[in-house]
Amino acid sequence: MLWMIGLSVLSCFVVLFLLGRRDERAIRRDWELLLTPKGESLYRNIEGRVHNELALVDLTYDEAFAVRELGSVDEAKRLLDVGYRVIEKFSPNMLNLLTAMANFSRMVSAMAPVTPLRPRDFKLTQIVSLAYLNGLVHQFLVSTAERYRLKLYILGQSFGLATRFLLDSTQKIARGAPEAEREWEQIQAIREDFQSLTDESLESLRVLLTSLAAERREDLLKGL
Amino acid sequence: MSETVSAIVKGGVFWAGQVLIVVVLSGLFLRRRYRACPSFVLYLLATLIGDLLLILGPRHLNPESSLFGLLGAKGFYSRDFWMLKELTLNLLKFAVALELAFRTFRSFPGARSTARSVMLLLVAVTLVSVVTVAAQVSAIDLEDRVNQIIGRLQPRVLNGTVWLFTGMAVLILWYRLPVDRFHKAILTGFVPYLLIFTIGLNALDSYGWNIRDLINYVHTTAYLLLLAYWAWEAWAPPAPPTVARGPAPVLERQAV
């Protein structure tokens, strides 16, 4: 009986502490996001920001590829470095977004069906393997919310991988390492994977913010 | 002299408890919060009536009295009445936990199905724990039997109730469910109080009844603090419309 009481005391106080310091207003505001048109407007805002950042990345890399074609290798390297810095800022933002989406996914139980990542959409072998893993584990999970969180996890890992490979290739080109040609091809592949990962992340966000059917929204709004 | 002072203090504490219950109840009705959890109102009323009958009810019953068969010669000052009161209060605490669970999870199908499984599991574990220990309550002497019930059976029932409340709190945190302010007050008030009560009863069983006074002081202090907290929450003005202060919630920050 003593161990039971000890366990009760410890776990209960941890839970109460967490419940006590929870910001109820923020929770209600999060629910409002899911239940009102504010969610759709938020989705448009995030979509706009992400597209702008990706457009900036594309512009820089397109310029780097064009300058390289014209033979100005130093300028191409400088532009590659600029492109990497933009990605260096973009990638953590996407990871934060995926983390926030994972938190929200617990709130939405009746989610639209989630499809796993498709390996054929990616170029980097490691990300293709992660997409296969996503497809495999997806079959073993029962609830849509679990599948959704798995997809977000795989997306997060893929963003991390792509950023690391991009840094690696950029550094090799900057050092003038042999087989630089292959690194330029690798950068092109990473760019395409970034685009696919971003599209999948935005689609997951759209599913999250528009999952609750209209009739359930009204019931829940009344409850709030 | 010291016995007189002790009796005055005990009386003062007892009546302070009753006054606080009345303050909580009047706050609940005047602020229209009684609808938030009717079983909690019932629990407070049962506590108030039970305590008042224990103190003010007849202490000697004639064999002709209709209550004699139920309570015995000592009337409301009997162990039978005390046991009946405790059983009712324990059942009502369980009812409060289940009603809070129903009201919190009813609108959220995913959380509701998990909550149902968790609650069933916890009720089953409590039942098994109570049935197992009930076999150990075997004293022949009535006083010893009551002491065994207080020391062994009661803590398990209370522990089960604590786990019901805690399980609910965990699910609320996991699913990020919105909770009514007074529901949260019931939950965050009940859990520490019941834990203190359980530890006290367990200590009585382990170390004997000579530490009864110490346990009584701790328990009474916790009880008065609990009632004061509920009174504060029952009389709190209604919450203003939802406007979050401070940094924007987690997803909104991503749009900036």
Radius of gyration of chain B: 21 Å
Largest interface: A-B, 48 and 44 residues
Regarding quaternary structure, how should these chains be classified?
heterodimer
Classification by helices and strands of chain A: mainly alpha
The separation of the N and C termini of chain B measures 72 Å
How many domains make up the 3D coordinates of chain B?
1
How widely separated are the two ends of chain A? 40 Å
Report the portion of residues of chain B in β strands. under 5%
Mean pLDDT, all residues of chain A: 84
SSE order of chain B: HHHHHHHH
How many DSSP E strands of chain B?
Answer: 0
Number of helices of chain A: 8
* Biggest β-sheet description of chain A: none
Helical stretch count of chain B?
8
Structural class of chain B: mainly alpha
What does this structure look like?
In chain A, 82% of the residues lie in helices and 0% in strands. Chain A has 224 residues and is mainly alpha-helical. Chain A has two domains: 1-35; 41-223, no CATH class. Chain B has one domain. The radius of gyration of chain B is 21 Å and the shape is globular. At the A-B interface, helix 1, helix 2, helix 3, helix 4 and helix 8 of A face helix 5, helix 6 and helix 7 of B.
What are the SSEs and their pairings?
The complex is a heterodimer of chains A (224) and B (256).
Chain A: H1 2-20, H2 24-35, H3 38-69, H4 73-105, H5 125-140, H6 144-175, H7 180-209, H8 214-223
Helix pairs in contact in A: 2-3, 3-4, 3-7, 4-6, 4-7, 5-6, 6-7
Chain B: H1 2-30, H2 38-56, H3 68-71, H4 79-105, H5 109-134, H6 142-175, H7 181-207, H8 212-235
